[in-house]
Amino acid sequence: xxxxxxxxxxxxxxxxxxxxxxxxxxxxxxxxxxxxxxxxxxxxxxxxxxxxxxxxxxxxxxxxxxxxxxxxxxxxxxxxxxxxxxxxxxxxxxxxxxxxxxxxxxxxxxxxxxxxxxxxxxxxxxxxxxxxxxxxxxxxxxxxxxxxxxxxxxxxxxxxxxxxxxxxxxxxxxxxxxxxxxxxxxxxxxxxxxxxxxxxxxxxxxxxxxxxxxxxxxxxxxxxxxxxxxxxxxxxxxxxxxxxxxxxxxxxxxxxxxxxxxxxxxxxxxxxxxxxxxxxxxxxxxxxxxxxxxxxxxxxxxxxxxxxxxxxxxxxxxxxxxxxxxxxxxxxxxxxxxxxxxxxxxxxxxxxxxxxxxxxxxxxxxxxxxxxxxxxx
Length: 377
Ligand SMILES: *Cc1c(COP(=O)(O)O)cnc(C)c1O
Hints:
By secondary structure, this protein is of the alpha/beta class. The chain folds into two domains: about 15-250, Type I PLP-dependent aspartate aminotransferase-like (Major domain) (Aspartate Aminotransferase, domain 2), CATH 3.40.640.10; about 250-375, Aspartate Aminotransferase, domain 1 (Alpha-Beta Complex), CATH 3.90.1150. The chain has helices spanning about 15-25, 35-45, 60-70, 90-95, 110-125, 145-155, 205-215, 240-250, 250-270, 305-315, 340-350, 360-375, and strands at about 50-55, 75-80, 95-100, 130-135, 160, 170, 175, 180-185, 200, 275, 285, 290-295, 320, 335-340, 350-355. The strands form three sheets. An eight-stranded mixed sheet has the order 1-9-8-5-4-2-3-14, with helices on both faces. A four-stranded antiparallel sheet has the order 10-12-15-13. Strands 7-6-11 form a three-stranded antiparallel sheet, with no helix packed on it. Helix 3 packs across helix 7. It is globular. The chain starts with 15 loop residues before the first helix and ends with a helix. The structure holds pyridoxal-5'-phosphate. Pyridoxal-5'-phosphate binds near residues 83, 84, 164 and 185.
């Protein structure tokens, strides 16, 4: 059996252990310390927004954003249907109702027309949505200009899920700075990782002050432990933050390599009949966290996404179907959905290819050879 090729494995830089050692030297084996402060400052500098709060995960960052916006029992929150469940689950944590909106075909993210349709319909039915969650899947920026115009028109805040999009840009602005509140994930498979972790970012300092309070057990300002609100233990560990500092040093290099992976796949696959790759449109700069292909069996002589995935699996190469839409998930079956078939089609025909920044040229050649063999090319 040939060595395993993973979809998107961690890629350490060698700088991380220096910062972990610092945490040990200072004996800050705790959710406070100089690595945490350093990582928040350094990410703030990278993004150009100083208000950053490091948390245990991207999911806890989305949950905290919901709490900061006061999402509560009975509220409605708009979210993409085509996404990872972690993007929608926090709406349920707050006992609110997710309103699911389908994707457009150019960014695969929230379709602005369907967003507006959903908002006006919910208002007609008696409730104005309290927030809009926007995601940039696979690193590709959503149509932020149109989405922002609609959000502003109806005065609804945006929670930007940039979990997969650190380093991506929309019209020259970094993803992770485009929401009223924004989040990034440092889970093990993301473009940089701390093993697990997340960041909450906002241009509004008050939001981050409030988030810090909620994420550290909601302790009132008193010498004893005094609580008038329910809080959470969501702060990142100072050790984990050290890994993040080492990783952030090499983010530009990681983006360059992921983009080169995408170029390679384009070069080898884009002229094959029935194979399509998601590409940047004007104004969108993607970190190409994952390279994705669509497989149209009508043009591949009947070969499907699953045919390719299963042979890759047999060859010890990990690939994965695109996200299964939330409106098809049993747990979200009760949620109103404004869909037009786009995300269902993406799910049926799409595949994520191995895209790690530590993929070797040899491994890329191995992957492409398998795909060409399945397609009899
Ligand atoms: C990874 C991911 C999350 C969750 O982040 P965690 O750090 O794993 O909790 C949320 N949304 C999207 C789109 C993601 O890819």
